[in-house]
Amino acid sequence: MTNDTNKNIIKYKTPVRLIILSGVILLLVIYFTEFAGIISNIYGVIFPLLLGAAMAYVINILVCAYERIVFPKSKAKVINQSRRGICILFAIVTIILILAFFLYILIPQINLTVHLLTAGFPQMYNNLLVWANEHQNQLPILQEKLQELNMDGATVLKKAMSLIGNWAWGTVSIVGTVFGKVLNFILAFIFAIYVLFGKDALGRQFRKLLRRTMRTERREKLYAALHTANVTFTNYIVGQVKEAVILGVLCTIGMLIFGFPYATVIGPFIGLTALIPLLGGYIGALVGVLLIVMVDPFQALLFIIFILILQQIEGNLIYPKVVGDSIGLPGLWVFAAITIGGGLMGIAGVLLGVPVAATIYKLLSQAVNNPPTIKIE
């Protein structure tokens, strides 16, 4: 009798849930604008916490590495109590030193790059006008458009700088924007420190909450999904950083060997942009081409060939060794993840789109292939 009653209750609950879900979806569709505004306001409020959680996750990768090094088997109570704080301090100092090293190299190089581009643009623009005049019979449309501009390279550059200045100092208060960003960063960093110190307690509370609210089977599936996401994100972050450093070093050394100009400018810049998956290296290479073409167009052509060969070596030999198959996402879906992520969240979406898509891809593959779940208690 009890089994029949339970079956009747289940049969009754299923259509009720469907009706409620359909009603909620209908309300979201009807009041989509209002709902989107509420979500946007909530996101703005909790953004420092989300950023802090992301920072804590990245820092925790180094913290776990240091915890395996700093007295991992010590039985001394004082050491065990202070080990977490020491490892967090080591991790933060390591990140600060890495950032300081890159900024020490890149900031002067970026200033030099901007100076070279602004100094060489007028001459390059005027050369383009001369070339267009010489080939006006073959390119009448281009000639007509350039004549309509009626400006030399210096005038175009001044106009562009004027537009940038009006945008920066006009309707938008850059000081207020920067202050808001800095404040969010400080709040996020403080929250990240709290999360790192309390991660064990948070883990216990999270598992206790799940034991009280979820059945064992669903809980194990959630643990398996979180484990897959953690492995994918960790391998992706570590792999991208290693790949960027290796690509930047190889590009710099190769440019010095072949005698390309601005090797110490272009190489580190390509390494930095390589943090952007799939397209980052080519974005950095485009800046390199613009710099070299002002010195020697033929060397710029050779540089393009050099970058294409380097990208093939990096993609087929270095990347599989450094990152391996941990991401496991086909190139088509990598491109789709970057496009969708960039459209939704800008640069953050570009950086996070690939590991998120890789996690979903792995979970779907596991669901199709029915692998055993990972039980974490």
Question: Could you name the key traits of this structure?
Answer:
globular, single chain, 0% strand, 85% helix, mainly alpha, 377 residues
Structure description:
The structure is a single chain. Mean pLDDT is 75; it is low at 167-173. It is globular, with a radius of gyration of 27 Å. The chain is 85% helix and 0% strand. The chain has 13 helices and no strands. 15% of the residues are buried. With 377 residues, it is mainly α. The protein has a domain at 214-377.
Outline the secondary-structure elements.
Elements: H1 2-30, H2 32-67, H3 77-134, H4 140-149, H5 153-169, H6 174-197, H7 199-213, H8 216-258, H9 263-273, H10 280-293, H11 297-322, H12 331-345, H13 347-369
